[in-house]
Structures are given as C-alpha cells and as structure tokens.
Design brief:
CATH class of the largest domain: Alpha Beta
Strand order of the largest sheet: 1-15-14-16-12-13
Number of domains: 3
Helix content: 10-25%
Strand content: 15-25%
Shape: elongated
Radius of gyration: 25 Å
Number of helices: 8
CATH architecture of the largest domain: Roll
Oligomer: single chain
Length: about 350
C-alpha cells in the first residue's frame, strides 16, 4: 500500500528514529524478525503518491579511499633511526599535541600523519646526523574514537585502529541486545546521518553494508520498546510524541499544537520504515475523512510542508532540510545523562592497537 522514499538526517549525535515497516514480514531492508508494537491498520485511500528506493549509502562509503591515520593527543608513538639504536624511544603525544625526542626537543605531532612527522624529525635531526632515516610507528591509537550507544551490550567509547569497520565496532561493544531495533539504527558522521542497512548487515550477513568507520562516528541502535512519532514542519510545536495506543495523523498534529498559518494541509508527508528503505505517503489533510483515519506507527515522521509538494522526487531533494528539526527533537530524547558521559569520554570500554 505504501511505497518508500529517500530521506537524509543530519546531527551530531543521534537521532532516535524507530521506524517500522508494515506487516509481520517485510522485504529487503524491512523489519523482518524484529519485535515492534503496532497499531491496527486501516486502509487509507487518497494517498497522492508513493515510491520506493534503496537508500543505503554503504556502496558509496565503501568506495571512498581510506584516510591515513592522523596523530592526535594521547597517541603512543615509537620513533627509531636506522643504524642509531640509541635513538629508539616511545613518546606519548601531549594534550597540546607535542612530543619530546632526543636531540631535537619538543616537536608538534598532532594533526600529522606518521610520514609527515617522520619528515619533520628527519629535518630536525639532520643538524646532528647525516641523512637520518627515521621510522615512526603508532603503538597505541588513543586519540581516534567511535561511540556505540543504544541497544548494544556495552555502550561506550572505543579507540579505533586504521581500517576499522562497523561490524568490528559492534563486536567490540559486545553485539546488539535482544531489544535492538535494527531498522531504526544509523551512524552519525560530522553532523550527518549515514543510511546503512543494519538489518541486512547483522541478520543477513550482507557485508556490502559493513562500512569503514572514521574518528568521531556515532553508532546508535534504538530500542524496539520505544513508542514515539515525530511531528515536524509547519506545526506550532515540533515534537516527539509518545504513543501508548492507537493515534491518527490529525491527533498527532493536534498534540503538536496544530497547524501553523503557513501549513499546506494538502501536502502532508508520513515517512516510516527502515532508514535505508523508508516508506513515504503524501496525504491531503483537507480531506478530513482521509486524514482522520490515517493510523500512525512507531517511529513515523510527519512532515507538514510550507509549500505544496508536487511529487515524491521533489521531496527527496529537500529531505535533508526537512529532517534537520527531527534531529534536534530526537537529540533531547537519546542524550540522557549516561549517553552524555559516553560522548564526553567518561566510559571508555577498550583500547585497540594500530596495526
């Protein structure tokens, strides 16, 4: 009944979108096998347009070249000079990004690759040694971190090595819990939500979804016990609304303070389902009987436009801007005290040696 369409999210941290697809079993990318609450579904006529598209970004992310490791504070380095064993030493990068080394004293290291630091040391040593050949190795990577939050066995901060992947991070975090809602899971990178199909990766072993992680990535896996819908756009109070029982589209809008003066009631979108394969309905709320009978489900996002949405393709182009408020609303939900501690580095679970 319902198709699917693209949507982008943006954050530093973590949106708690708990999307859910229709029925007990869903096709590729759906919530097959996941236990989630549902509301009774009444057939909805008058849906203007539906569509479907696989939105996983994994292929593009996997095709990007792996960046070189950039040295940062707390990293432990080993520095040696060919044929000068007495100059071999380990150095820890200070909070100011400096290391101290024989003969040359303090030298900036933070922000450099090990090859760039090697060149700096060679230049400094050339005053004392003819054509020094320096080797810099990263013994312990302590400055590069990723965060695993939500329904993993050991939420926390994890130090990562180079070429560290999503499945490795989940393994370090002890795997997912029985309450994990994989269809609503996502990764946040540089304020932008990456659409990766966690269900395909974990339940079906599709390694194409196993993307490489970069420092600062946040992995968030929501709980299938959460029951919220999100109302965004031209409403008086953008909000995440707890649902304990059946709720319709118009009831959710009412709880969000109703439509604003600029709301285009004939261009309401309801998005639901797996983040990588979302469903999208476009509904004309001027037709009150139709709007009043649209049942919502866990994780639905209702977006009230300020201008008429002519088709789903145009919606896709605007989706990033549409869902920025969703990010802002959801931040307040998932950033409980324990999560804040994790993000500030208070709960470091493990350390991984760079190879």
């Amino acid at each position: 009944m319902v198709g699917r369409k693209r949507f982008f999210l943006a954050i530093w941290l973590s949106v708690s979108a708990l999307f859910w697809c229709h029925g007990c079993t869903v096709g590729s990318g759906g919530s097959l096998g996941e236990t989630v609450s549902r509301v009774d579904q009444t057939p909805v006529e008058g849906v203007v347009e539906t569509n479907q598209e696989d939105l996983s970004m994994a292929k593009a992310l996997n095709s990007q070249p792996s960046p070189q490791y950039v040295i940062g504070p707390e990293d432990v380095l080993q520095i040696s000079v060919f044929r000068h064993e007495d100059l071999t030493m380990e150095a820890t990068v200070s909070s100011e990004g400096m290391i101290s080394y024989y003969l040359v004293g303090d030298i900036p290291a933070s922000g450099l690759t090990r090859f760039e630091l090697r060149d700096k040391i060679e230049k400094a040593l050339s005053k004392y040694i003819r054509r020094p050949q320096v080797i810099v190795q990263i013994v312990e990577a302590r400055s590069h971190k990723v965060y695993a939050l939500g329904e993993v066995e050991s939420p926390g901060v994890y130090h990562i090595r180079t070429h560290f992947t999503l499945i490795e991070a989940l393994s370090e975090a002890g795997g997912i819990t029985s309450d994990a809602y994989l269809s609503g899971a996502y990764i946040v990178r540089n304020g932008r939500v990456l659409l990766v199909n966690f269900y395909e990766l974990i339940k079906k072993g599709n390694t194409e979804e196993n993307i490489p992680l970069v420092p600062g990535d946040v992995i968030y896996i929501p709980s299938n016990k959460d029951q919220k819908v999100f109302v965004l756009g031209e409403v008086n109070r953008q909000a995440a609304i707890q649902i304990d029982e059946r709720i319709t589209l118009l009831e959710a809008v009412a709880r969000a303070g109703g439509f604003t003066h600029d709301a285009k009631r004939n261009s309401i979108m309801v998005m639901r389902g797996n983040l990588s394969r979302p469903e999208i309905m476009k509904i004309n709320c001027d037709d009150m009987p139709i709007a009043a009978n649209v049942p919502l489900q866990q994780g639905d996002i209702i977006y009230v436009a300020s201008s008429t949405i002519s088709n789903v393709e145009r919606v896709a182009l605007r989706i990033s801007n549409i869902l920025q408020p969703f990010l802002d609303v959801a931040r307040g939900i998932i950033l409980q005290d324990s999560a804040v501690d994790v993000l500030e580095g208070e709960d470091v679970q493990t350390s991984i040696v760079v190879r």
